[in-house]
Amino acid sequence: MTAAAPPAGVGARTAEEPQVNWAILLLGFAGMVIGQFMAILDIQIVASSLPQIQAGVGASADEISWIQTAYLIPEVVMIPLSGYLSRLWGTRNVFLASCLGFMVMSVAVGLSASVEQMIVFRAIQGFVGGAMIPTVFAVAFTAFPPKQRVTASVIMGLIVTLAPTVGPTLGGHLTEQLSWRWLFFINVPPGLLVLFLVGRYANFDKGDPSLTKGFDWLGLGLMATFLMSLQFVLEEGAKNDWFADDHILLLAVVVLLTGPAFVWRALSYRNPIVELRAFANRNFMVGVVMTFTVGAALFGGTFLLPLFLGRVRGYSSAEVGTTMVVSGLAMFATAPFAGRLVRLIDPRILMFTGFMMCAWAMWDAHAVTTEWAFWEFAGVQALRGVGVMMAMIASQQVTMSTLPPHMVKNASGLVNLFRNVGGAFGLAILNTSLTTNTALHMSELTQNITSTNAGMLGLLAAMQERFAGSLDPAGAAMKAVYGMLNLQATTLAFGDAFAMLAIGCAAAAFVTLMAKPVKVPANAPPVEAH
Question: What is the DSSP letter of 372?
Fold first, then answer.
């Protein structure tokens, strides 16, 4: 007697919707998300306490900046390389090795007795920890069923945006309450949790050892040289007057030579380190441009606000962190709504709206004055936070939704790489803008004040009377007036930098319209590649 045939459509539905053990999937993914949060947080948590680290290890101002640079330069090599390693060894093995190396190097950095030791350990920490960032992104688009990928994107969006936002707050309080060494020791407890969760529950795929055959060492060398040189130029260029410095000029030439060579190698070699053919997909190309801009807007805004509060307002690390928390709260509150909206309407509309909100916020901030503090920045930060979160979640859907599954791991590395490079590019441009425009505004202010200006003469006389008890009242008065003018020039330069970010975000908003329509309904099957 033959078994009754199943109802029509049941077999197809079962094939399309495989059973998922949600407990195991969510526990493994949660472990990876915590690791990703640690890796991103470690950049910003240190930024707020560099003066204390400088005093602790007796470093010079030039040396201490390398605590950050040494972490970021090797990291950009690992981020695209992680896609290849995940396919070779499996996502779980790569993530466990990355997390363990990150923890060990965190302790080594915290125990360092000299700035030279710190720089070496930070470089290794950045390289091994870089794999934790893009692998989470790949898992969200391969392990989760299609209708749950938006939720996974929302979680990743929160991590990517909240980590830089809460970093200065957490770093400032840790340094004040304990010591700067705890900025690195703090990674150990969550790291142990990550090792347990990922080791036990994150067996999402298997590696393919055959990929070791014909490993592209030349491609790896070209990629590493290109990305590290590019990151160095972007990180150090503004400090060293760009191409006036011989090292920056030499490395810029290296970038121009190795960049095209790496692209040629990746497109022509049978087993490339990074798969660049994803760029043939129009949505991926537009999404990468959007991700680059999100990186500039996210890291640029997070860079400008603390710098203004410290340089102009004289805020401590803890005070800066408290003021910055508004954008984090706005992002956190927006994420669930953005996740729902991206299922209901065209993601291109969300991207456009998000970037225009960022542009509006930054344009409002270009009217900044020396009196701006928490409440003046609260509205700017809230609007920017909402816009960044909407643009990020929508851009993730547009970028990855039309790629075939076998391209996702490599593509996730490229997406994260472009966000980091976008951030570095934004910081380089903003740094240069601040330096150049401060000098320009200072020149304009001083040229408009003549030696016979009655207001200036009155101010100098009042200042001399105030400093009458000093050895040189006239010199002290001139120095005080110069400081006041420089403060105004600096504030005007910050306004120009905010305006620059606003223009960039507005331009990006219109680029989003070039993407193909992408619908992300609640029960959609996987979208095939076009």
Answer: -
